[in-house]
Amino acid sequence: MSYEKHFLEHFHKACFNLLHELVMRRALSIELEEHLVNQVLKVEDGRFAYTDDALVLVARILIIRTSTGSSLGDDSLRLKICKGYAGFIVEKVKATYSGCLNIQEVCASLPSLFHLEVLLMAFHSSNAFEKIKMAENIFSTLSNVSCPPVELNSTQLVCWSLLISRLMLILRHMILHSTTFPSWLMFNIRNKLIQITQGGTFQLPTGTGYLESWVYHVVQSVINVNEGVTEEHGMADLFQQLIDVSGVHNWGIVEHKVLQDLGLNWSDLYSVVCRILEVWQNREASQVHELILERYCFVLGWITLSDIDVKEAGALPWSPELGRDKLLEIEYFISFSRILRHNVHFGHTGELSQLANIILDILSQLQTLYKEHSVKERGWLFLRHSAWLSLILSLLQAGLWKVSLRKIPVSREDTFWIEQRQSCKNCFK
């Protein structure tokens, strides 16, 4: 290592230690703290210019301000962090519309996972007024970019999908954890702060760990069978972005009051999510990135809407006369999923008194569609129909599991699955 490089690294570490000590001792004025945060979260050449350890300073300032009750109000530091994140995504979306970005550039310029965690921590450390402002900011930003003003080509669609997924992810977190601070988030931030405090080498995790989404696990299972596909298609960077903010087995239901407390409206939320998922209608995938990101956004939107208990949302009418074209409409898939989700959770069948007839009707329509269309056509038509098939097969599997439990002993290791599948028993009375 050259003398100049060694000197710069030592100088950087000394400056950081000094700033960290000043922040911990509350030696900086509120104005200087905000200036420091603005400098850390500054955007240069289309990406955030922070280093990994610099984000720790932002996290420390947020924690200290929360403990002292500082920076409350409409223009708080926490709200500025949220607006800065959302504004960055908007600028990237605009660059996507102009065709200036590819997926590798978007992955490289996206805010880091630690930055996302700092933003979520800012939300949890906010008062009720600030939470409303932050939720409204993220939702309004998502709404503004939910309908591209131009016809997107394959590369633009991939970039747009990944960018809006970050807003969907944040909004999903705000809804799921509006009043609770998730243990995984607290654990992650605490470990990072401890590493810096003890003077160790600070490194962000190379994998997403327990933040991996359903889509990540599905794609990874495919790749495990097809070695080398990540290098061939350049998907290694994309995999690190396929994250979620809840466990793979999140079985809770969010009360409608949560939306009201966040200043959100069910009808608007439902409309925006459906509008996003309909962008892929009448399109065909030309690269594997499109398939992955469509499924990622689809799952994020689908499970978020399914997790919310909104009685007045009602259910769309179902009858064989509707025709199989309805299988392509996202509203019917979400409506059917929500009915299942809520009736399983609350232990009654409700609107599903004719569940068997509906299942048979859907299977019959799918059978006809698969006969008419070649299985080699792997566009969004194939994926949307396959989602229906997966959902129906999952229901049938749950029903078969219920029957088998009566006859076959199950090991203690399968207790979790027993509890979850037994919760579905009321759908199959």
Topology:
Elements: H1 3-24, H2 30-40, E1 43-44, E2 47-48, H3 54-68, H4 77-97, H5 103-109, H6 113-124, H7 128-144, H8 154-176, H9 183-197, H10 214-225, H11 229-233, H12 236-239, E3 254-255, H13 256-261, H14 266-277, H15 288-306, E4 308-309, H16 330-346, H17 355-372, H18 380-405, H19 415-422
Parallel strand pairs: 3-4
Antiparallel strand pairs: 1-2
Structural write-up:
- By secondary structure, the chain is mostly helical.
- It folds into two domains: 3-313, no CATH class; 314-429, no CATH class.
- Helices cover 63% and strands 2% of the residues.
- The chain has 19 helices and four strands.
- The chain has helices spanning 3-24, 30-40, 54-68, 77-97, 103-109, 113-124, 128-144, 154-176, 183-197, 214-225, 229-233, 236-239, 256-261, 266-277, 288-306, 330-346, 355-372, 380-405, 415-422, and strands at residues 43-44, 47-48, 254-255, 308-309.
- The chain is globular and about 70 Å long.
Give a short account of the largest sheet.
2 strands, antiparallel
Structural class by secondary-structure content? mainly alpha
**What amount of the residues lies in strands?**
under 5%
End-to-end separation? 72 Å
Helical residues, percent: 55-70%
Order of helices and strands: HHEEHHHHHHHHHHEHHHEHHHH
Question: Counting H and I runs of at least 4 residues, what is the number of helices?
Answer: 19
Mean pLDDT: 79
Quick structural summary:
The protein is an all-alpha fold. 63% of the residues lie in helices and 2% in strands. The relative contact order is 0.07.
